[in-house]
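Entry type: protein chain
Record version: 2
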Amino acid sequence: MFGALAKAVATLVTYPLQVAQTILRKHNSSSSSSNSPQGSSELDSKSNAPRRHHHHHPVLGTFGVLMKLFRSGGIPAMYTGVQMKFVQTVLT
Protein backbone atom coordinates (compact mmCIF):
# COMPACT_ATOMS: atom_id res chain seq x y z
CA MET A 1 0.00 0.00 0.00
CA PHE A 2 2.68 2.54 0.98
CA GLY A 3 4.88 1.40 -1.89
CA ALA A 4 2.11 2.09 -4.41
CA LEU A 5 1.48 5.51 -2.86
CA ALA A 6 5.19 6.33 -2.99
CA LYS A 7 5.33 5.33 -6.67
CA ALA A 8 2.29 7.49 -7.45
CA VAL A 9 3.82 10.54 -5.75
CA ALA A 10 7.16 9.97 -7.49
CA THR A 11 5.37 9.72 -10.84
CA LEU A 12 3.48 12.96 -10.23
CA VAL A 13 6.69 14.77 -9.33
CA THR A 14 8.90 13.42 -12.11
CA TYR A 15 6.45 13.10 -15.02
CA PRO A 16 6.80 16.69 -16.31
CA LEU A 17 10.59 16.21 -16.35
CA GLN A 18 10.20 13.02 -18.37
CA VAL A 19 7.93 14.83 -20.85
CA ALA A 20 10.46 17.66 -21.23
CA GLN A 21 13.33 15.23 -21.75
CA THR A 22 11.32 13.35 -24.38
CA ILE A 23 10.63 16.61 -26.22
CA LEU A 24 14.33 17.52 -26.09
CA ARG A 25 15.36 14.09 -27.41
CA LYS A 26 12.82 14.35 -30.23
CA HIS A 27 14.04 17.86 -31.08
CA ASN A 28 17.70 16.81 -31.03
CA SER A 29 17.11 13.73 -33.17
CA SER A 30 15.01 15.61 -35.73
CA SER A 31 17.43 18.53 -35.98
CA SER A 32 20.46 16.28 -36.33
CA SER A 33 18.78 14.16 -39.02
CA SER A 34 17.66 17.19 -41.01
CA ASN A 35 20.40 18.32 -43.34
CA SER A 36 18.25 20.26 -45.77
CA PRO A 37 18.93 23.97 -46.18
CA GLN A 38 15.34 24.76 -45.23
CA GLY A 39 15.62 23.15 -41.82
CA SER A 40 13.35 20.67 -40.14
CA SER A 41 9.69 20.23 -40.99
CA GLU A 42 6.93 19.95 -38.43
CA LEU A 43 3.17 19.94 -38.75
CA ASP A 44 1.34 23.14 -37.97
CA SER A 45 -1.07 22.29 -35.15
CA LYS A 46 -3.98 24.22 -36.71
CA SER A 47 -3.72 23.48 -40.42
CA ASN A 48 -1.83 20.16 -40.25
CA ALA A 49 0.35 21.47 -43.08
CA PRO A 50 4.14 21.17 -42.99
CA ARG A 51 5.80 24.09 -41.26
CA ARG A 52 9.37 24.94 -42.26
CA HIS A 53 11.92 26.41 -39.91
CA HIS A 54 14.38 28.53 -41.83
CA HIS A 55 16.76 29.22 -38.98
CA HIS A 56 17.97 27.22 -36.06
CA HIS A 57 16.66 28.19 -32.62
CA PRO A 58 18.84 27.45 -29.61
CA VAL A 59 17.77 24.46 -27.54
CA LEU A 60 15.94 25.63 -24.45
CA GLY A 61 17.01 22.92 -22.04
CA THR A 62 14.75 21.02 -19.65
CA PHE A 63 13.61 24.07 -17.66
CA GLY A 64 12.94 26.07 -20.83
CA VAL A 65 10.83 23.26 -22.28
CA LEU A 66 8.88 23.00 -19.01
CA MET A 67 8.20 26.73 -19.06
CA LYS A 68 7.13 26.61 -22.72
CA LEU A 69 4.78 23.72 -21.97
CA PHE A 70 3.31 25.57 -19.00
CA ARG A 71 2.80 28.77 -21.00
CA SER A 72 1.18 26.94 -23.89
CA GLY A 73 -1.22 24.71 -21.96
CA GLY A 74 -0.77 25.14 -18.25
CA ILE A 75 -0.42 22.21 -15.89
CA PRO A 76 -2.56 19.88 -18.04
CA ALA A 77 0.00 20.19 -20.87
CA MET A 78 2.73 19.05 -18.50
CA TYR A 79 0.76 15.92 -17.56
CA THR A 80 -0.46 14.81 -20.98
CA GLY A 81 -0.36 11.02 -21.04
CA VAL A 82 0.20 10.59 -17.30
CA GLN A 83 -2.64 8.04 -17.13
CA MET A 84 -0.63 5.49 -19.10
CA LYS A 85 2.41 6.17 -16.94
CA PHE A 86 0.31 5.35 -13.86
CA VAL A 87 -0.76 2.08 -15.47
CA GLN A 88 2.90 1.25 -16.19
CA THR A 89 3.86 2.19 -12.62
CA VAL A 90 1.15 0.01 -11.07
CA LEU A 91 2.13 -3.00 -13.20
CA THR A 92 5.79 -2.86 -12.14
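Comment: Confidence is low (pLDDT under 50) at residues 36-41.
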